[in-house]
Amino acid sequence: MELDERKVTILKAIIKTYLETGEPVGSRTISKYTELKLSSATIRNEMSDLEEMGYIIQPHTSAGRIPSDKGYRFYVDQIMQEKEQEVTEVKELMIQRVDRVELVLKRLAQMLATNTNYAAMISGPQYHQNKLKFIQLSQMPENKLLVVIVVEGNLIRNKVVEVRESISQEELLNLNILLNSSLNGLTIQEINLGVISQLKSKAGTHREVVDLVLGEVAEAIQAEDEELQIYTSGATNIFKYPELSDGEKASQLINTLEKKEMLQELITDGSDSTGIQVYIGNETPIQSMKDCSVVTANYELGEGIRGTIGIIGPKRMDYEKVLGTLKNLMKQLDATYKNEKGDGYEPGQENGRAD
């Protein structure tokens, strides 16, 4: 007899419930918590199989079941495997190019919500004083150019632009040299009218191309007033906690998690913090979260590229687990960024994908 998906789900539910209560677990209890939507009779049959296989035992004739050493071993091995997979997924996600950043943040929010059983939020990176690292123009058919822009943090933007003039390979090479020698290392604030005027003057007949490239540079570096993106996950997890599942409280919390202008208060409040912030009850700046605890941390992917990660749950949240999860994630982000930064970017590495 093998452990199929249904048996694994039931076994995990038995172990988790027993760890929380310390009491033998019955089929009726499991039927309320598993997502399999099985009857108590079906769960009893599966529990009998699990007992026969040695994963659970029945301490008393009329009692429920508790995990055996074999059951605990299976559970621990599963957790270790899942955590290893999470680390691998984070590494894979965080090395994605800038055109995948939205997907990366959504996936990270989902992973946090699943890992903690609370609600999670992540703000998209805000680019303050971000510097230009590299520009490359490449020839394409029909008077089009592929513009590749790399900004600090190795964030890459690819864009195809159409030009009215014909440009030879030699002219294109000279334009690449001119743009990089004039703009590399500058922030959007430092690319002022004087720099632009001098650049256009040196470009001569290719002033229009310089105009197009400067427009793309401005978008890549991004102005400070760009609309803040916030991604949330696990809002329905609050229904698992009686003190938050009251109709009005739950409604207000879910409404807050859906409105980024309200969540922005959390981000603004802790924007200058370099560590982990814990808000308990009335300490939170958001009125609808006064019955909650909120833990936030700021991540940084390089100078000027910052965002906020937050976990929202009941006041009786598992602080040790939440703080550990956030610290590990911050270390992973930091290590991934440093590796990525060490690799650097060399001309010709662009993937050719255009917006």
3D structure, described in words:
Mean pLDDT is 78; it is low at 95-99 and 341-355. This protein has eleven helices and eleven strands. It folds into three domains: 5-74, Orthogonal Bundle (Arc Repressor Mutant, subunit A); 95-127 and 228-343, GAF domain (Beta-Lactamase), CATH 3.30.450.40; 132-221, 2-Layer Sandwich (Enolase-like, domain 1). It is of the alpha+beta class. The chain is elongated. Helices cover 47% and strands 18% of the residues. The strands form three sheets. Strands 3, 4, 8, 9, 10 and 11 form a six-stranded antiparallel sheet that branches. It has a three-stranded antiparallel sheet with strand order 5-6-7. It has a two-stranded antiparallel sheet with strand order 1-2.
